[in-house]
């Protein structure tokens, strides 16, 4: 039966069709829905997990692939940085069962720290990479990826981008899941224990093998040429190919070359495709990977083709391509004079930066620290999650944000450089499990003076509310012991560990003041569930006592609060009755939710 | 049939469900459909769009500027932000109720959508809906997305029959809210006609 699913769903359905035996991942936009989709379709006999982080996911999957199982690992592009330690080594060792590492890239970036290109990682690790252009193709291509992985006994990277991951299409979902039969782990220390001697031997083998894979890819069904044998060609990959195809449907005289396997590059295919081509425009997102490949080929084979793209300024170096940006690029390339866009004076639009939801407990946590530290010299080290939004005005409580877990460790750096300032780290519960714990150990061992604020909302909120080790549920649908954050911290040996309800402002402020004044490493666990998982029926309302001072708006920036007809009002459809505004109000004019 | 429909609004308004219902209805009538959603950080109160592309002629997930047959706008400034997508003979369904961003509340900028609605009125080809008023009568702002879908269906610009869409909504909403949602949908259709 055909089902209308997201690209990530298509990837999951393709993996199911390939009989994948194990799937591991860590949530990250735009990759999160792959594991979630697997859990929603029949998958009896498959091991499914949200791993604690991407490195753990890749290692768990590697062992399964050593045993001959088909293994899927999912993450966003920056997750591949975390998993790169095992990946680089695994590339040398290889696998027995098919292993596909999905690393979803995010041109824009729309929800990421970097515009890195996972095709570069494939080249770096010397392993094949597959680059789908649409959800339909992703469904087919992930099955191919498993087959190639098994054929060449190497892990492969599968790299969709946001528009493929979050595009919807109809996919033929089969009802029956048939897990692949596999032999089980056959001990062979000469193969599975990485030593310098093995790496030396396999390095040579891998380079030789990659030439063969390139030849194989030259016949690959998704490396295609369309249009006439023209002097001008467009070479595209990923979703950019789709935009180019849409524009070029009115220009069949232009050759359109699609490369689905950037590494190892399909050399024969490219040479055939470029025959008679005098100019080629490389249309790709993130890095000029194919452009460089074509330049290398041109050098090697003394081709006279002129190569345009990001390196020549014909395609922007950064950001995502769109139907419109590609139209402009191609019009310029083909010398088409565009119709003058009608000049239209639109009124100035309000800026709409993303904000913490109304009633979000993180707002209360940040506000308590802000109030407690009024007038003091402070450092606020943020981290990755919804709470990065604590940077927005009026909270303005994030001084740094670098990568998963960095808040805890960067806070230590500030504390060693400045003994006067009060240093805070803010980290969510899922991020704490992913990469916060080692940082806390480092802080205690190296005698830092920091207060670690754990914003525990009992879920992985930003990516769509995935469970984690502290939630008591896993992806096998098992109830598990909730791993206790305070017990972990007590085990590490902090000066003080205190748990508070952030929606109780007075108690929270007191806890912050106490911890900040103590020496060493302290932790405050601000525990209150995400408003999206625990629906509140409580509401606050402004009473006639309101003096219209707007302190509630100025201090909290809650999106449920606004001014209408000169009066402060609370949008009842957004309010969760968290009562932070009521606790801020100087005249007690906000009521409705007792606390 | 080829139709490009752009749904725009603010994260949290229920645009994704609206896009799913349009897609499902178009498929029920035998069309190929593709759509693209805004998922991620922008869902926390940022601008969101859904591009729904019906028909075989859509090779890519995003609608090109100047070619949307219909804009279903959940918020006036978001319609203005995306007005460039509308084709010459396209129509925009506009909820006139503004969502004031926190930045506007903080700076006291006074944004209330009036200027946007004025601009759109001058521009023409819009169907205006007082979302706040209509939803108050319907009992909850939760019916806004179905109300606007009703207007979209009633406008005739979707290329999907009102009945197909109505039964798709019937299938998708929980029993408890079915009657109210259908009432919202019918109200929307009536506004368009």
Description:
The complex is a heterodimer of chains A (595) and B (193). Chain A is built from 21 helices and 22 strands. Chain A is an alpha/beta fold and 595 residues long. In chain A, β17 (496-500), α19 and β18 (521-527) form a beta-alpha-beta unit. In chain A, the strands form six sheets. A six-stranded parallel beta sheet of chain A has the order 3-2-4-5-7-6, sandwiched between helices. Chain A has four domains: 2-214, Rossmann fold; 224-334, Rossmann fold, CATH 3.40.50.920; 361-527, Thiamin diphosphate (ThDP)-binding fold, Pyr/PP domains (Rossmann fold, 3-Layer(aba) Sandwich); 541-591, Alpha-Beta Plaits, CATH 3.30.70. In chain A, α1 (7-17) packs across α2, α16 (406-417) runs parallel beside α17 and α17 (429-445) packs parallel to α18. With 193 residues, chain B is α/β, with parallel strands linked by helices. The two termini of chain B are 23 Å apart. In chain B, strands 2-3-1-4-5-6 form a six-stranded mixed beta sheet, with helices on both faces. Chain B has a single domain (3-192), classed as Pyruvate-ferredoxin oxidoreductase, PFOR, domain III (Pyruvate-ferredoxin Oxidoreductase, domain 3, 3-Layer(aba) Sandwich), CATH 3.40.920. In chain B, β4, α2 (76-81) and β5 (86-95) form a beta-alpha-beta unit. The chains are: A alpha/beta (595), B alpha/beta (193). Chains A and B meet through β8, α11, α14 and β20 of A and α1, β2, α2, α3 and α4 of B.
Question: What keywords describe this structure?
Answer:
heterodimer, A: about 600 residues, alpha/beta, Rossmann fold, 4 domains, 6-stranded parallel beta sheet, 21 helices, about 15% strand, B: about 190 residues, Pyruvate-ferredoxin Oxidoreductase, domain 3, 6-stranded mixed beta sheet
CATH class division of chain B: Alpha Beta
Text of the CATH class of the largest domain in chain A? Alpha Beta
- Helix proportion of residues of chain B, in percent? 40-55%
Arithmetic mean pLDDT of chain B = 93
Percent helix of chain A: 25-40%
Strand element count of chain B: 6
CATH H-level superfamily title of chain B? Pyruvate-ferredoxin oxidoreductase, PFOR, domain III
Biggest sheet layout of chain B: 6 strands, mixed
Identify the CATH architecture of chain B.
3-Layer(aba) Sandwich
Mean pLDDT across all amino acids of chain A: 96
The Cα radius of gyration of chain B reads 16 Å
Strand order of the largest sheet of chain B: 2-3-1-4-5-6
CATH topology of the largest domain in chain A: Rossmann fold
- Alpha-carbon distance between the termini of chain A? 51 Å
Count of individual helical segments of chain B:
8
């Amino acid at each position: 039966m055909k089902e209308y699913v997201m690209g990530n769903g298509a990837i999951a359905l393709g993996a199911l069709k390939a009989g994948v035996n194990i799937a591991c991942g860590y949530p990250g936009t735009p990759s999160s829905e792959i594991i979630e989709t697997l859990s929603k379709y029949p998958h009896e006999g498959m091991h499914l997990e949200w791993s604690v982080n991407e490195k753990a996911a890749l290692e768990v999957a590697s062992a399964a692939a050593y045993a001959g199982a088909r293994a899927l690992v999912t993450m966003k592009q920056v997750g591949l940085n975390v998993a790169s330690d095992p990946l680089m080594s695994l590339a040398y060792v290889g696998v027995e069962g098919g292993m596909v590492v999905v690393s979803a890239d995010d041109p824009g970036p729309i929800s990421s720290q970097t515009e890195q290109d996972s095709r570069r990682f494939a080249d770096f690790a010397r392993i094949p990479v597959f680059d789908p252009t649409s959800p339909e193709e992703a469904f087919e291509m992930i099955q191919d990826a498993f087959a190639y992985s098994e054929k060449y006994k190497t892990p492969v990277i599968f790299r969709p981008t946001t528009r493929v991951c979050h595009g919807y299409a109809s996919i033929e979902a089969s009802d029956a899941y048939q897990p692949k039969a596999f032999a089980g782990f056959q001990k062979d220390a000469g193969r599975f224990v990485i030593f310098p001697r093995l790496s030396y031997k396999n390095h040579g083998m891998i380079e030789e093998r990659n030439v063969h894979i390139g030849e194989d890819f030259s016949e690959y069904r998704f490396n295609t040429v369309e249009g006439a044998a023209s002097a001008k060609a467009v070479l595209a990959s990923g979703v950019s190919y789709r935009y180019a195809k849409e524009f070029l449907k009115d220009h069949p005289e232009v050759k359109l070359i699609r490369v689905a396997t950037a590494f190892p590059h399909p050399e024969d295919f490219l040479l055939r495709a470029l025959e008679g081509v005098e100019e080629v425009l490389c249309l790709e997102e993130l890095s000029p990977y194919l452009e460089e490949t074509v330049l290398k080929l041109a050098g090697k084979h003394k081709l006279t083709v002129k190569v345009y793209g990001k390196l020549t300024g014909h395609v922007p170096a950064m950001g995502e391509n769109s139907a419109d940006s590609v139209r402009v690029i191609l019009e310029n390339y083909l010398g088409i004079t565009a119709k003058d866009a009608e000049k239209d004076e639109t009124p100035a639009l309000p800026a709409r930066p993303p904000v913490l939801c109304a009633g979000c407990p993180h707002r209360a946590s940040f506000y308590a620290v802000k109030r407690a530290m009024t007038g003091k010299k402070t450092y606020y080290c943020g981290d990755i999650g919804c709470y990065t939004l604590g940077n927005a005005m009026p909270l303005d409580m994030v001084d740094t944000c670098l990568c998963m877990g960095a808040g805890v460790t960067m806070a230590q750096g500030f504390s060693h450089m400045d003994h006067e300032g009060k240093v805070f780290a803010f980290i969510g519960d899922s991020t704490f499990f992913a990469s916060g714990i080692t940082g806390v150990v480092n802080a205690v061992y190296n005698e830092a003076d920091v207060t670690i604020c754990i914003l525990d909302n009992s879920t992985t909120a930003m990516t769509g509310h995935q469970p984690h080790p502290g939630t008591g549920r896993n992806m096998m649908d098992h109830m598990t012991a909730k791993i206790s954050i305070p017990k972990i911290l007590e085990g590490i040996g902090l000066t003080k560990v205190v748990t508070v309800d952030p929606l109780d402002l007075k108690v929270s402020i007191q806890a912050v003041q106490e911890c900040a004044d103590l020496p060493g490493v302290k932790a405050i666990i601000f525990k209150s569930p995400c408003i999206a998982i625990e629906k509140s029926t409580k509401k606050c309302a402004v009473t006639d006592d309101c003096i219209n001072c707007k302190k509630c708006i100025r201090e909290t920036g809650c999106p449920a609060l606004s001014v209408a007809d000169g009066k402060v009002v609370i949008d009842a459809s957004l309010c969760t009755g968290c009562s932070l505004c009521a606790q801020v109000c100087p005249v007690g004019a906000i009521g409705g939710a007792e606390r | 049939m080829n139709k490009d429909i752009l749904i725009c609004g603010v994260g949290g308004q229920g645009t994704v469900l609206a896009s799913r219902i349009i897609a499902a209805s178009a498929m029920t009538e035998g069309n190929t459909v593709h759509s693209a959603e805004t998922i991620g950080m922008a869902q926390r109160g940022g601008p969101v769009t859904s591009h729904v592309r019906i028909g075989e002629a859509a090779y890519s997930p995003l609608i090109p500027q100047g070619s949307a047959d219909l804009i279903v706008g959940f918020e006036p400034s978001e319609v203005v932000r995306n007005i460039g997508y509308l084709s010459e003979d396209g129509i925009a369904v506009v909820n006139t109720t503004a969502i004031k961003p926190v930045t506007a509340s903080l700076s006291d900028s006074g944004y209330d959508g009036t200027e946007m609605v004025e601009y759109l009125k001058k521009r023409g080809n819009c169907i205006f809906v007082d979302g706040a008023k209509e939803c108050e009568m319907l009992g909850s702002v939760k019916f806004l997305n179905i109300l606007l879908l009703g207007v979209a269906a009633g406008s005739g610009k979707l290329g999907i029959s009102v009945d197909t869409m109505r039964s798709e909504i019937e299938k998708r909403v929980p029993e408890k809210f079915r009657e109210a949602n259908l009432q919202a949908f019918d109200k929307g259709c009536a506004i368009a006609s």
